[in-house]
Amino acid sequence: MSVATDPLNAERRSTRAAVYPTRAAVVAAATGAPFALLVGVFAPGRWYAGLAWPLTVLLLTLLDALLGSRKAKLSVVGPDSASVGGQADVTVALAIDGPRPPRAAQVAVATNPLVRAEEEGRTAVELAGGRGSVLVGLHTLRRGTARIEALWARWRGPLGLSWHQRQVEAALAFPVLPDIRGVEERASQIFQRHALQGLLAQMDRGDGSDFDAMVEYRAGMDRRAIDWKQSARHSKLHAKEFRTERNAQIVFAVDSGRQMSEPVAGLPRVDRAVSAALLAGWVALKLGDRVALHAFDSRPRVAGGLIGGAAAFPALQRLAAEIDYSGEETNYSFALTTLAGLLTRRSMIVLFTEFTDATSADFLVRAARKLVEKHLLLVVVLRDEEVETFLDRAPDAVEDVTRAVTAAGLLADRKLALTRLRHLGVHVIESEHDRVGERLVAGYIDLKRRNLL
């Protein structure tokens, strides 16, 4: 757990105190206004009597401010790390000293843009003897370093007419990492599902390019594997059994440019791509293949070497955490040419990208044409559900017709670009945002089973 030091004891100048009236005090003072008006109308010589009520409320509010507790200590404890798109809970502890400590208070937190606090960070806390703590939920929006920048606490005086507030600068920070929640669980489920179909057993033996053994032919085996010379020698049908080639190179290339930094269903596309890459990378490492991760926008940004073995997955996760958001346009030619120059043998390149105009799509097609001459290219894009909604929605106004026409044009350009990629021999996965990981793993296993890696 990440713990912030007690800011009050560490740095006194970071504390700000304030006392102000509650809503009850304001309403009570305003209630006396009609009485003061009536006194001024019917007894102008005693107009000062009309001020008795608001002055009494003011004096009681001042008394409440003097009687209320003045000393308070705030501290906050947070997690060691959190996953993007999830929730992180921080614990805010409050200690109020004084002869009449309150039974309840309110606390609030101020965060940086990477996280958003529930209820704007305001939470009620029950106190026992002036001590209490409460969990504050934070929604992680982007990767990076999340910070709790300030803490607030306020409580009412004994009469309920004044608020006592303390503001303290906080020093809590924790990293927001790529989402790997359930990676092993989901990958295990995928393994189990395909194992029930006999796929994993075939991937090890019987379905590959490397000769493994000569076995007696059994029903269900591929007839093309029959060795007729050996069968004639032994007077029985014999077939060659192969095993799948291991140590295939899988390179995940993540486009982190401007269009991939835009959100889909509340989370940037690049984060959904990173989560899918980690899921597929975990499966690939388990199956004995070697994995690398690259990221680029206008130029290459993150370049990792090939790693192998399930124990290397934490290194892949740390490298994925370095992929940053960018506002620059994607340069496919520069990035993919640089990547191809780093590969010394045929590899499977999984490209996560997004394009919304014909120009960027044309640059992607040109870069892919050179890449597929030597490597196996798999392009993964997320369906633009928002644009599809504009197209499917029944128009109620002229603006709806304009949106539908524009959406139809964008989707037509997108479909044309994907069709051009398929004609080049590029494998394409166009998936919903919440199924991209499973679709990618299924596509990878299918290509491996077909011995295309």
Automatic annotation (TrEMBL):
Residues 216-388 form the DUF58 domain. The keyword Ion transport does not apply. Pfam families: DUF58. InterPro entries: DUF58 (IPR002881), vWFA_dom_sf (IPR036465). The chain crosses the membrane at residues 20-41, 47-67. Keywords: Membrane, Transmembrane, Transmembrane helix. This is DUF58 domain-containing protein.
